[in-house]
Each structure stands twice: as C-alpha cells, then as structure tokens.
Design a protein that fits this description.
alpha/beta, Nucleotidyltransferase, domain 5, 6 helices
C-alpha cells in the first residue's frame, strides 16, 4: 500500500484598518502561505472598511490562492473574531437563524462569512489563535510570555521554536496588511 501522507498548508492572515471607527477609513489585509518549503505572500487594501472585514478578507484571499483541495490547512490568526467563529462554528447557528445573531441582529460581514465558509468542505482545517504581535527586538521574557499565551489558547502541540516561527509569519502578515493600507492611500 502506498503511503499518501497529507501535506499541510499553513496560512497566516491579518487585517488592519486606519481610522477603524470613522466613516472614512482605509483597511489592508495581508496573508502568508506556506507549503512544503514554499512561501507566498499576498496583500491588498480597501477604503471604507473595518478591521474585521480585513481579517476575514485576508483568509479568503489566502484560500483563493490554493490550487488543490483536500489538504490539511492550518490557520494561524490573531483575530479572536475570525478564529473563534471558525473554531466554535458560530456560522452554523447564524445560518439556522437566518443569519441573525443570538441577539436577533443581522450578522455583520455576512457577505464575507458566506464566501469564507464555502471553503470549509474542501479542506481539513485547524484554527490557531496567536494573540498579538511580538515587537521587533523583544526580549526573551516577552517571547516566553507570548508563547504561554499561545499555549493557553491552543494547547501544548507546538514547541517554543515552532511558536517563534509562527509569530514571525504573523508579524509578516501584519506588515503586509499595512502595505495594503499604504497602497490604497
């Protein structure tokens, strides 16, 4: 019998928004994809958007760049809104409730959520929350604290060295999102 080991695609999405709470603002999204030693980076931006829309857009754009289905896809995002929705499957209740929240309000960003959840049957997903970015030049104590936060949200499945690599890609996705903002301005 042939050993057909599944390959893992790692996706690091991030969104940013300058003037997030104002009527006229600029948002950017960035995403880093990794697969078998290859790396691809994408970014873009929009006007009159929100940070949450940019977070979702980053993942949609990353998934849209995939050319094959039925892979394991690990998503490492810093947006609780994005990761919690996917991990806890909020979208299933939203669909049952006619795209209303438990407070009977329309689900924000429904158009993007519908695009995103359309990808879910095509891959075996795992979603990981990496809260916050590690500042450039951060000391070991800061890195260790962030690693402990990561473990609190995701369990003990990653080593400290793996976490640092994840954090580096998370920081790069943030940089790409900010490039997207600058390009729209």
């Amino acid at each position: 019998m042939e050993n057909k080991e599944k390959h893992i695609i790692k996706i690091y999405p991030d969104g940013a928004c300058s003037g997030n709470q104002f009527a006229c603002n600029t948002g950017g999204w960035g995403v880093v994809l990794e697969y078998d030693g290859y790396r691809k980076e994408l970014h873009g931006g929009e006007i009159n958007t929100t940070n949450n829309r940019m977070e979702i857009t980053a993942l949609i754009e990353g998934l849209s760049a995939l050319t094959k289905k039925n892979y394991d896809v690990w998503v490492f995002g810093d947006s609780s809104y994005l990761i919690d929705c996917l991990r806890k499957r909020w979208y299933e209740k939203w669909k049952i409730n006619g795209w209303l929240t438990s407070d009977k309000k329309p689900v924000e960003n429904r158009d993007l959520w519908e695009r995103l959840i359309a990808f879910l049957p095509d891959y075996d997903f795992r979603f990981y929350l990496i809260k916050g970015h590690i500042p450039a030049g951060a000391g070991e104590e800061t890195k260790v604290k962030q690693f402990e936060r990561f473990r609190k949200h995701n369990g003990d499945g990653f080593s400290y060295e793996e976490f640092l690599a994840i954090a580096e890609k998370n920081n790069r996705a943030d940089e790409l999102a900010n490039i997207g903002i600058k390009e729209v301005l």
